[in-house]
């Protein structure tokens, strides 16, 4: 534990496993965008691009739609290890997920994940032949969040700064999905 965390008057570290880890992952990843990093084990500089998961399922798997001719798909075919970096707000909801990516062209899964806005990238609609599915199965993760929301965290920071004491509403820990 580092010196800042040691100065906390309340516990701010909690590893989560199983269902609790999955709930935290889903809460933090659903409805937000991430940086999708590939090429992470090749020894080359990793590649990153913004992506949004279409779904986080009950197993904790994250589902994306991607063009089957994209650089990302080619990189996953060479190295399926990926890293997903989420930031929900300027002050909280940080999530780091490592996982194994699989690519498929499962038409039923495409239909399940499809949203009309995706026609921006897949101009032929739901039947666009370029659509592929990427499933990321998490292997490990880490989260940083606030216990009571940004407003409480901000007030604690202000009070802490005024009295010269580390008052922080943060919580962090490993996710074992």
From TrEMBL:
One Pfam family cited in the UniProt record for this chain: Pyrid_ox_like
Q: Which Gene3D superfamilies match?
A: Electron Transport, Fmn-binding Protein, Chain A
Which InterPro entries does the record match to this protein?
Split_barrel_FMN-bd (IPR012349), Stress-Dev_Protein (IPR052917), YdaG_split_barrel_FMN-bd (IPR038725)
**Which segments does the entry list as coiled coil?**
none
Where in the numbering of this chain does the General stress protein FMN-binding split barrel domain appear?
20-167
Name under which the protein is recorded: General stress protein
The record lists the organism as: Mucilaginibacter terrigena
What is this organism's lineage? Bacteria, Pseudomonadati, Bacteroidota, Sphingobacteriia, Sphingobacteriales
């Amino acid at each position: 534990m580092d010196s800042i965390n040691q100065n906390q008057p309340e516990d701010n570290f909690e590893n989560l496993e199983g269902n609790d880890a999955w709930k935290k992952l889903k809460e933090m990843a659903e409805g937000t965008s991430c940086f999708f990093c590939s090429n992470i084990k090749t020894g080359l500089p990793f590649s990153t691009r913004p992506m949004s998961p279409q779904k986080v399922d009950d197993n904790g798997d994250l589902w994306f739609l991607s063009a089957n001719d994209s650089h990302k798909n080619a990189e996953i075919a060479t190295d399926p290890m990926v890293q997903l970096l989420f930031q929900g707000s300027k002050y909280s909801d940080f999530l780091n997920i490592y996982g194994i990516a699989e690519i498929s062209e499962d038409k039923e899964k495409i239909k399940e994940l499809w949203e009309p806005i995706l026609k921006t990238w897949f101009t032929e609609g739901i039947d666009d032949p370029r659509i592929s599915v990427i499933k990321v199965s998490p292997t490990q993760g880490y989260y940083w969040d606030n216990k009571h929301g940004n407003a409480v965290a901000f007030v604690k920071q202000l009070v802490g700064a005024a009295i010269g004491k580390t008052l922080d509403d943060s919580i962090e820990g490993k996710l074992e999905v």
